[in-house]
Amino acid sequence: MPAGKIHDRITLGATPAVMAITFIGTGSARLTLLMAIAFGFSGLMFGPDLDIHSCQYKRWGWLRWVWLPYRHFIPHRSPLSHGFLIGTILRLLYLGSWLLLASAGIGTVLILLQKLNLQGINWLIPRQWLEQHRWELLTIFVGLEAGAMAHSVSDWGGSWLKKKLKPQQKKHSSQGKSKSRRRS
Known about the structure:
Elements: H1 4-26, H2 29-44, H3 55-58, H4 68-73, H5 79-82, H6 86-102, H7 104-115, H8 126-132, H9 134-183
Helix pairs in contact: 1-2, 2-9
Organism: Synechocystis sp. (strain ATCC 27184 / PCC 6803 / Kazusa)
Region (Disordered): 163-184
Keywords: Membrane, Transmembrane, Transmembrane helix
């Protein structure tokens, strides 16, 4: 399993390819930028290793306490943190619940403003807002998931490679010992 700095290099190194693929697929500079930001954010701050005391966890600075319950309840490298789709969805729901709690007061004020039927706040109607921004939201989610999967795939590949090379290392070390015994 790669160290945090290796995961960072993978994220930063893969970002140009992610941007190229996104631009070719969408033809939109705006969606390409959103994808790159989401991919980078996921790889550097919002990835699967928030379940341990990792680089990603430390980068949250004084807000890292938000992730303590997550670290307590989510086992490291479980499907809940490193799994395809489920890890990203669970982290989004977890962070979303904190944001919902933090914005309860603001939400109350906005609802009151909407009830007063003030102009220029049509975006407060969630369905309309979701319809207007569905492609942006989908792009952000795909970017977050792609960043998380770059992390998880490198973990899985590193573990697989380690297991694959372990028997060969034992073979080489035992052959070296038997040759040295013959010489003495």
